[in-house]
Structures are given as structure tokens and as C-alpha cells.
Backbone:
């Protein structure tokens, strides 16, 4: 009954103050949900980007079966050989959902500056792939600060620098490597200071900054001693604070030279759509197994490869869900209260409508239209309010430090169209449901009872 | 073979529970009404007039006995079917007008037609305008009820009752809230419509002047029609 909407709209004008208050509570509730939802979307994107792109886990991480658990202790046994890599790449090449594949070698050892040595954990990357990954639009949208080196440029910009490497800011400080390749080239140290570091100066390795060279020493996978020189071309913040004092990133070739191998620890697979991760993980695992390489494929939200993401999201989801429930309860109570009062005032009118031939369903429909219309208008106002607030916050430049992440990131709210649409499709039926709760008893009453009910 | 009356009440009983007390509102009421009758139900307060009108208007069901409208026992109909019957064939005029305050005269009169899918938009408009003309409210057609006098409001209610072209109009004390002059004009109007359209009118009243102008009067006392 299309005229029902007209009648509903007119009825909303009856008790304007009450309907305004109810509409305001729905609008504010919706606004709150959009903002907190926007915050949750922002944090989820940040965590996902952090795990997938910055830690270079990929949407999928492919390890030889057992490699994730025992690859560090027995790398020669659980790494992916050059032949394994070719077979896996062949399977991935036939998977249209795959956007990019990276090869990675993980290793540990000691880093020295000629005076002191400190342990490091190294990640070998393909510089061109790393540059593409860090330039990905998702990274630029969610974590541009962490994708950029603190100083210097990405490894791919130094194809002619042998052993180009990036140090985490904490490791660089421990080694006294406070000046990087570009800075030393632009302003070389004078005189004898340039020849060798002065080990007599102990405070913070202050004189180790005469060059950007670091010596890496480690046992090869065959068990012999090995060492390579690397040149520090950039300093960066790691995605996690706990790895800030010992992380080094260099080219895959440099690290393979250090460990005397052509194998890699894992392959990171970047998908065009993160939502395909779980479906593809199982399918790729079967396909690669069938190609003769026993592997395990881990999606990025698996706690074994993305513990930070997997550990934080349930907490965030439950927190946002709880707040959402509180807001929904306020909305429901507001609607129930307003509709109950409205029905009390209009009991005789409901009886009159029934006497004129309106069925119970039609009378109920009229009341639900009123609540729906009020909710739709309130959602519109709430949405406008939320988008205004989000825009103001996003342009304010406010920053915050997420727990466990070195440095700070922009405080952004991301109320996506999908989020707003999902919340609207939740709130409007919720309002209609609340109205149904309030009026169903009235519509079930006898016509005579409605016509003669005394309204105090 | 006797002809089926338009409306027949056959040994109708109705009881209400008021707390611990059971009120026997109607006690075996029986009567027939012919199509086009103009009938008043009179009696003191509490005699069962409103209850009788509710049953005749299919707003309620008898505890015992039958209400037959054109031979159909209305108690056997589902709630939705009774709603359709009221909408298509029965008009109501209430003592307190019961107009929707946010709708103007045109929209109040149009209301019962909005739920009748057999009446298209053009016909609906025609009927509403005719009904408004019949009750001489054309100048006020776009006014809200709160801008109208009591008599004008009751005329809106009459137009609303007649716009569906009902077979029966039930009116509960339709002149109770009106002054004497307005009451007479209203009765003239009802009689004219009854005469022109052969609509059956059944209404309750306390008004002696009104009773004097009605050919057929049912006297209710303690829920019964004394013979």
C-alpha cells in the first residue's frame, strides 16, 4: 500500500519533539557505529597491510611441509630448492588470482662494525619485488609511513652497490651505523677517521659511523663459517617493536651467498583480493603437492605466520561488537519507547482504522512504515554527521602509536561504503523490529477494545 | 419460501468480563432489517446499544446466536475476511468523529478506499469528490480536522462512511456532540442519503428530536428488546 508511506510520513509530524529525540538517538547511534566501524576497518587494514606487505608474509606464505616450524633449525632440509621454486612458480603462474610472488630467505648470524658484534635476524628479498610490494596501493593507503625507509632509499634503487642492505633503526644504533651510504657519499668523513672505525670510543659506537659497511658472519647450511660485507643504504622501522633491535634486510642473492645456498625459506604470494586467501590456500596446497613439492600454504591471518594480526583481530572484533550491541540496544529502546507512547496516544485511531477495514497486518504495516521512515531519515543524518567527523579527523593529522608498533601512524577513520551500507541495513530493520515489538500487542487487540480504551 | 432479510439477528447474546464481574450486555436479541431501512436503537445508558451496533458492524462476535448479513453468518468469517467485509460493505460514524488529525478532509474521506484494490485512482478521486460534495464540504476539502467545527467534522465522518458505497451504515450516537441546529441538518442529510441511495442506516441515539423523525425504532432495555 504505497499510500501507507504518505500516512506514515504525516504521522511522524505529529509529536515532533518526541520523534526528533528518537531520530536523534538513532542518528547519533548510527554515527557512533559508523565511526567505530571506520576505526575497526582502519585498524584491520593496517594490521593486514603490516602482515601481508610490510612483513612480506604475503596473503599466502608457502613453506615446505615442516619448514615453518623447523626451517630455522634445519634450513637445508626444510627450505625450498631452486627446483622446488620453479615447480611452485609454475603452479602459481596458472592462478589468475595471484598478483605477485616473492622469494624470501630467512637467516640469523652476527653483524659487526669492526669493533662490536650483535646478533641479527635477516630477511633476503628480491629488491624489485620488495619495491613493488611496498609501493602497493593498499600499503600507501594504510601504512605509508612504515613503507618508507626512515632514511635512504629502497634496496632496488642501489643495483650497483654490492651487498646493499637495510638495517632496522635499533640495530643501526647498536652498531653505531648512524650514517648511511648516500649521506657518506654526499659528505665523506675527513682524514684518518675515514680509514677505520675508532674502537677506543665505546659510547654508542660513536666513531663507527665513518663508513656504512657492516660485516655479516654466519654458519652456512653446510656448517662452515661464512661472511659477507654489506653496505647500509637505508634505515627503517620494523612493523613490530620486538624486532626493532636486530632486523636486517638485504637482497636474496647476498643472503644466499652468506649461507651458500640457492634455496629460499618461503614464497610470499600476493593476491588481487585478500578475500580469496582461505579458498586459495587449500587449493594451491593440493596443486603444489600434486606438482611434487610437499608444502603447507598459510593464509596471512594464520597465527603461525601472522600472530599479530590473528591475535589482535578477535579482540578488536569483540570490542567493536560489544560497543555495537550497546548502541543497538539504545536504538531499540528509543524506538520501543517512542512507538509505545505513540500507540498509547493513538489507540482509538488504530481501532478506527480497523473499523474502516484495515486488517491487523495493514495496521501493523502502517506503524512499521513510521519506524522505518524515521530510521531511514535518522540514518541519513547520522551518515552525514559521521562522514563530516571522519573527514575532520582524517584531515587533522592526528597520530597514534599502535601497541607493538615502533613509531606512530596517522589516526584515520575509514567508513567505507560497504561498512555504511551494512550498518544501515542493520539499523533500519532493527528499528522496524523494535516498532513491531511495541505495536504488535495493540494490533492483536479487538477492534472494540481499541475503540473504547481509555487513554489517560 | 420467505425472502432473506438484509440483516438478521437471531437470539444474540453478548457478555463482557469487567474484573470479577460478568456483564450480560445482550440477552437473546432478535430482529430483522430490510435493505434501505432507517432505524434508530434507543435505550438508557448501559442498555446494550453500543454492543448491538458493534455486532451488527462486524466489529465483534456474539457469544451465542447469529448475526446474518445478507444471509451470511459473520462470526464464521476470519478476521481478515471481516475486515474486507467492513471495508467494502459497512460504513461507520462515530460519536467522537475519529478523524485522522494529520490528514485533510479529502485524505480522511479517501482513507477506506486506499485499501480497496478494486477501486482505481481515478474512480477513487471521483468518489471522494462526490462524497465531499454530498456533505457540502467542498470549500473545506483541504483543511485539517482541527480547523473544522464539530458539525463539519461529523460530515467528514459521514462522507468517509459513504465513500465506499456501503450497504449498511452503523452510527454510534452520531449527534451526541452536536448542537441542536447541526443535529437537524445532519439528520436531514442522513435521511436524504438513505432515500437517494437505499443505504441501510442503523444508529443509536438518546436524542428525542431525532427519534421523532425515524420510522423504525428499536427500544433496548437491559440488553433485550421487549416485545
Residues:
Amino acid at each position: 500500500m504505497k499510500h501507507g508511506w504518505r500516512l506514515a510520513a504525516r504521522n511522524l509530524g505529529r509529536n515532533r519533539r518526541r520523534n526528533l529525540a528518537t531520530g536523534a538517538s538513532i542518528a547519533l547511534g548510527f554515527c557512533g557505529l559508523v565511526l567505530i566501524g571506520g576505526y575497526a576497518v582502519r585498524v584491520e587494514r593496517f594490521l593486514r597491510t603490516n602482515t601481508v606487505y610490510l612483513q612480506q608474509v604475503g596473503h599466502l606464505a608457502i613453506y615446505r611441509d615442516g619448514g615453518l616450524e623447523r626451517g630455522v633449525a634445519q634450513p637445508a632440509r626444510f627450505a625450498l630448492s631452486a627446483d622446488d621454486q620453479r615447480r611452485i612458480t609454475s603452479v602459481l603462474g596458472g592462478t589468475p588470482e595471484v598478483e605477485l610472488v616473492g622469494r624470501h630467505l630467512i637467516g640469523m648470524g652476527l653483524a659487526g662494525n669492526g669493533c662490536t658484534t650483535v646478533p641479527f635476524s635477516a630477511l633476503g628479498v628480491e629488491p624489485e619485488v620488495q619495491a613493488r610490494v611496498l609501493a602497493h596501493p593498499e600499503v600507501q593507503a594504510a601504512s605509508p609511513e612504515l613503507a618508507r625507509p626512515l632514511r635512504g632509499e629502497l634496496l632496488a634503487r642501489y643495483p650497483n652497490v654490492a651487498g646493499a642492505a637495510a638495517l632496522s633503526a635499533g640495530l643501526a644504533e647498536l652498531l653505531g651505523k648512524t650514517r648511511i651510504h648516500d649521506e657518506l657519499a654526499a659528505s665523506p668523513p675527513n682524514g684518518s677517521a675515514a680509514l677505520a672505525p675508532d674502537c677506543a670510543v665505546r659510547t654508542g659506537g660513536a666513531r663507527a659511523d665513518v663508513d656504512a659497511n657492516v660485516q655479516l658472519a654466519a654458519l652456512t647450511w653446510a656448517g662452515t663459517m661464512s661472511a659477507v660485507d654489506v653496505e647500509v643504504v637505508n634505515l627503517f622501522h620494523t612493523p613490530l617493536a620486538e624486532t626493532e633491535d636486530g632486523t636486517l634486510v638485504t637482497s636474496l642473492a647476498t643472503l644466499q651467498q652468506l649461507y651458500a645456498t640457492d634455496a629460499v625459506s618461503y614464497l610470499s604470494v600476493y593476491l588481487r583480493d585478500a578475500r580469496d586467501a582461505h579458498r586459495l590456500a587449500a587449493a594451491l596446497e593440493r596443486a603444489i603437492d600434486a606438482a611434487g613439492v610437499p608444502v603447507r600454504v598459510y593464509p596471512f591471518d594464520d597465527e603461525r605466520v601472522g600472530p599479530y594480526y590473528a591475535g589482535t583481530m578477535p579482540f578488536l572484533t569483540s570490542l567493536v561488537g560489544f560497543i555495537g550491541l550497546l548502541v543497538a540496544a539504545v536504538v531499540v529502546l528509543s524506538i520501543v519507547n517512542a512507538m509505545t507512547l505513540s500507540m498509547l496516544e493513538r489507540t482509538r485511531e488504530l481501532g478506527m482504522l480497523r473499523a474502516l477495514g484495515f486488517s491487523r497486518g495493514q495496521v501493523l504495516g502502517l506503524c512499521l512504515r513510521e519506524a522505518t521512515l524515521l530510521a531511514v531519515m535518522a540514518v541519513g543524518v547520522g551518515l552525514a554527521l559521521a562522514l563530516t567527523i571522519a573527514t575532520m579527523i582524517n584531515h587533522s593529522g592526528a597520530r597514534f602509536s599502535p601497541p607493538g608498533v615502533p613509531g606512530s601512524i596517522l589516526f584515520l577513520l575509514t567508513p567505507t561504503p560497504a561498512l555504511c551500507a551494512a550498518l544501515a541495513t542493520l539499523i533500519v530493520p532493527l528499528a522496524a523490529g523494535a516498532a513491531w515489538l511495541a505495536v504488535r500487542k495493540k494490533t492483536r487487540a479487538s477492534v472494540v477494545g481499541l475503540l473504547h480504551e481509555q487513554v489517560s | 419460501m420467505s425472502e432473506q432479510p438484509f440483516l438478521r439477528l437471531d437470539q444474540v447474546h453478548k457478555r463482557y468480563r469487567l474484573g470479577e464481574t460478568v456483564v450480560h450486555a445482550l440477552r437473546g436479541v432478535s430482529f430483522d432489517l430490510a435493505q434501505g431501512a432507517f432505524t434508530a436503537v434507543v435505550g438508557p445508558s448501559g442498555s446494550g446499544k453500543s454492543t448491538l451496533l458493534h455486532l451488527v458492524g462486524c466489529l465483534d462476535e456474539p457469544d451465542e446466536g447469529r448475526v446474518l448479513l445478507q444471509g451470511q453468518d459473520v462470526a464464521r468469517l476470519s478476521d481478515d475476511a471481516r475486515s474486507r467485509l467492513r471495508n467494502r460493505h459497512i460504513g461507520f460514524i462515530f460519536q467522537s468523529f475519529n478523524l485522522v488529525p494529520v490528514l485533510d478532509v479529502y485524505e480522511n474521506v479517501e482513507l477506506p478506499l486506499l485499501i480497496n484494490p478494486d477501486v482505481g485512482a481515478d474512480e477513487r478521486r471521483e468518489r471522494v469528490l462526490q462524497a465531499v460534495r454530498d456533505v457540502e464540504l467542498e470549500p473545506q476539502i483541504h483543511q485539517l480536522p482541527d480547523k473544522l467545527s464539530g458539525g463539519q467534522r461529523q460530515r467528514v465522518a459521514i462522507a468517509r462512511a459513504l465513500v465506499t458505497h456501503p450497504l449498511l451504515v452503523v452510527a454510534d450516537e452520531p449527534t451526541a456532540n452536536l448542537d441542536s441546529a447541526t443535529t437537524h441538518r445532519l439528520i436531514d442529510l442522513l435521511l436524504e442519503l438513505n432515500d437517494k441511495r437505499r443505504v441501510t442506516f442503523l444508529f443509536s441515539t438518546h436524542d428525542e428530536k431525532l427519534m421523532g423523525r425515524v420510522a423504525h425504532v428499536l427500544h433496548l432495555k437491559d440488553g433485550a428488546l421487549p416485545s
